[in-house]
Design goal:
Distance between the termini: 47 Å
Strand content: 5-15%
Order of helices and strands: HHEEEHEEH
Structural class: alpha+beta
Shape: globular
Largest sheet: 5 strands, antiparallel
Helix content: 25-40%
Strand order of the largest sheet: 1-2-3-5-4
């Protein structure tokens, strides 16, 4: 099995990332109440993602959440997310109406102990991963970031729903 890395391009490691993954898989809601056996493991999720994407190029995303375990295949341009609970379908429909230009294309996969969602990778640089040195984060970049964020929020606030 290929090595799974959890680092930025700079080589920085995230010591809390393995802790988030461990916490996700140790949650009692992921265990069969009759046997106390975990319904699935990190390895099970990784193998399932490789199988449905038909690639060995599957690694952890750099920033894991608490309610999900997320893998990415850069060669396929796909993200696979395993969740503790399913996403709210009504919210997903509403998000598609509001943010029609975002290529989410979220699909739900059945046949696995956890809810599994597959989506296209959204291109761009996440704000959390940008270089924050004052020399590199110039005024124009700050202004564009705030403008984009304001547009994103405003679309949701003014959407007739």
């Amino acid at each position: 099995m290929p090595a799974i890395t959890m680092s930025l391009d700079s080589g920085e490691s995230h010591p809390w990332n393995p802790a988030c993954i461990k916490l996700f898989f140790s949650d009692s809601s992921l265990k069969d109440p009759r046997s106390e056996v975990v319904a699935c493991s990190e390895a099970d999720c990784t193998e399932f993602a490789k199988r449905i994407l038909e690639t060995e190029d599957v690694v952890h995303v750099d920033y894991q959440g608490i309610q999900s375990f997320t893998l990415i295949s850069r060669s396929k341009g796909k993200v696979v997310q395993f969740r503790k609970t399913p996403l709210d379908e009504d919210m997903l429909v509403l998000a598609d109406k509001i943010y029609v230009d975002l290529p989410r294309k979220l699909t739900y996969r059945n046949g696995f102990p956890l809810p599994v969602y597959i989506s296209d990778v959204v291109r761009g640089v996440h704000l959390i991963t940008t270089n924050r040195s004052s020399d590199d984060f110039v005024f124009e970049t700050q202004r564009q970031t705030i403008t984009n964020l304001a547009r994103f929020i405003t679309r949701a606030l003014h959407f007739p729903g």
